[in-house]
Write a structure and sequence with these properties.
GO terms for molecular function: ATP binding; ATP hydrolysis activity. Keywords: ATP-binding, Nucleotide-binding, Transport. This is Oligopeptide/dipeptide ABC transporter, ATPase subunit. By secondary structure, this protein is an alpha/beta fold. It has two domains: 215 residues, Rossmann fold, CATH 3.40.50.300; 81 residues, no CATH class. It contains ten helices and twelve strands. The protein binds adenosine-5'-triphosphate. Adenosine-5'-triphosphate (ATP) binds next to strand 1 and helix 1.
Length: 324
C-alpha cells in the first residue's frame, strides 16, 4: 500500500467561553494515513471533531500541533507553487450541495469557471461533458440549469463532477450523502468506489453512519470527542475491540428493533449534556464516564490511554488492552 496523506499527532484547540478565555481540544493527538486508491472512512458522532479534521486537511484551519504530510511533505510548509498544486490535488465535497454553489450561476457557468481557474483542458466543453457522464448525469439534463432546479442527488453529483475536472488525488467528502434519500446515497457512495477503482482517486469519507463506512471504507477510523478510539481495516467493524465501537455498532437501527421511547431519548440527551463539559477536562479516557468496563483499577478516570496495536494494523485506545 502506498501512502498519500498522513496525519501525525494532530491536535486542534479552540477558544471557548466568555471572551474566548478557555481553550478546549476539539481534536487531540490524531494519527492515521490515507493510502493511494483507497477509501478511509472517519466515523464519529456529532461534535467528535470530524469537520475540524477535514478543514485541517483542506488547509482551511491550522492544527495547534502535529503535522499533515502529503506525499512526504508537510502541507503547512508548502511554498506557493506546492500550495497551488495541493489545492488542485485535494478537493472537498460537502454535506449540503445547495450551499456549495452560487445560486445565481448555471451548472455550465460553475463548471466553466472551475475549468478556467485550473485550466483543466484545452476543450472545456468536452471535459465538462466527460465528468458529468462519469458521475452518471446526462449533460443535457443539467447544463443550463440553476442549482435550485436540480435535486439534491443531482447537485451532489455535480459537485463531484466539479472536483473531477481538476483531476484530484484525494477527495475529502464531509457527510456527502447525509442530506440525500437512501437510494441516492448508495449511488453517490458507488461513485466514490468507482473513482477509487477506475481512477485511483483516494477518498476520506467523513460520516456519522457506520453502515456507510462499512459499505465503502477500506480503512476505518473511529473518533470520539476528538480522540481516535479504534482504527484498522474494515474488518474492525466485524470484530470491534473498543467498548465505544461496540456500543456504536449496537446502536445501528435495524428493522427488528423499534425506536426508543420519548423518555429514553430525553434521559440520553440529559446524560450527554451533563457529560459534555466534564469530558473535555478529564485527565483520563474520554469515554470513561460512559464505558461499562471503566474502573479505578485500570486507571480509566485518571490516565489517558495511548493507542495500543492489539494486532497488526489494528489500533485501540483503551486500557483494557494494555500489555501487563
Ligand atoms: N470555530 C470554533 N470555535 C470553537 N469551537 C468550535 C469551532 N468549531 C468547532 N468547534 C467545536 O469543536 C467540536 C468539534 O466540532 P466539529 O464540527 O469538528 O465536530 P463534528 O464531528 O464535525 O460534528 P458534526 O457532525 O455535528 O458536524 C465541537 O464541540 C464544536 O462545538
Amino acid at each position: 500500500m502506498v501512502e498519500l496523506l498522513r496525519l501525525e499527532n494532530v491536535t486542534k484547540e479552540y477558544s471557548r467561553g466568555l471572551f474566548g478565555g478557555t481553550r478546549f481540544r476539539a481534536v487531540e493527538d490524531v494519527s492515521f494515513k490515507v493510502d493511494k486508491g483507497k477509501i478511509l472512512a472517519l466515523i464519529g458522532e456529532s461534535g467528535s471533531g470530524k469537520t475540524t479534521i477535514a478543514r485541517i486537511i483542506l488547509r482551511i484551519l491550522r492544527p495547534t500541533s502535529g503535522r499533515v504530510i502529503f506525499e512526504g511533505k508537510d502541507i503547512f510548509a508548502f511554498d506557493a507553487e506546492e500550495s497551488a498544486a495541493y489545492y488542485r490535488n485535494v478537493q472537498g465535497i460537502f454535506q449540503d450541495p445547495y450551499s456549495s454553489f452560487n445560486p445565481l450561476k448555471t451548472v455550465d457557468d460553475i463548471l466553466e469557471l472551475t475549468c478556467k481557474k485550473y485550466t483543466c483542458s484545452e476543450y472545456p466543453e468536452n471535459a465538462i461533458k466527460q465528468v458529468l457522464e462519469r458521475v452518471g448525469l446526462d449533460p443535457q439534463s443539467v447544463l443550463g440549469k440553476f442549482p435550485h432546479q436540480l435535486s439534491g442527488g443531482q447537485l451532489q453529483r455535480v459537485s463531484i463532477a466539479r472536483a473531477l475536472l481538476v483531476k484530484p488525488r484525494l477527495l475529502v467528502a464531509d457527510e456527502p450523502v447525509s442530506m440525500l434519500d437512501a437510494s441516492t446515497r448508495v449511488d453517490i457512495l458507488n461513485i466514490l468506489y468507482d473513482l477509487k477503482t477506475g481512477e485511483n482517486i483516494s477518498t476520506l469519507l467523513i460520516t456519522h453512519d457506520v453502515s456507510q463506512a462499512y459499505y465503502v471504507g477500506d480503512e476505518i477510523v473511529v473518533l470520539y470527542r476528538g480522540h481516535v478510539m479504534e482504527r484498522g481495516d474494515a474488518t474492525i467493524l466485524e470484530k470491534p475491540l473498543h467498548p465505544y465501537t461496540t456500543n456504536l455498532l449496537a446502536s445501528v437501527p435495524t428493522l427488528s428493533s423499534r425506536w426508543a421511547t420519548e423518555e429514553k431519548i430525553r434521559a440520553a440527551r440529559l446524560r450527554l449534556e451533563a457529560e459534555e463539559e466534564t469530558v473535555y477536562t478529564t485527565t483520563g479516557c474520554k469515554y470513561a464516564s460512559r464505558c461499562p468496563y471503566a474502573s479505578e483499577k485500570l486507571g480509566c478516570f485518571t490516565r489517558k490511554p495511548p493507542e495500543i496495536e492489539v494486532e497488526p494494523g489494528h489500533f485501540v485506545r483503551c486500557w483494557l488492552y494494555e500489555r501487563r
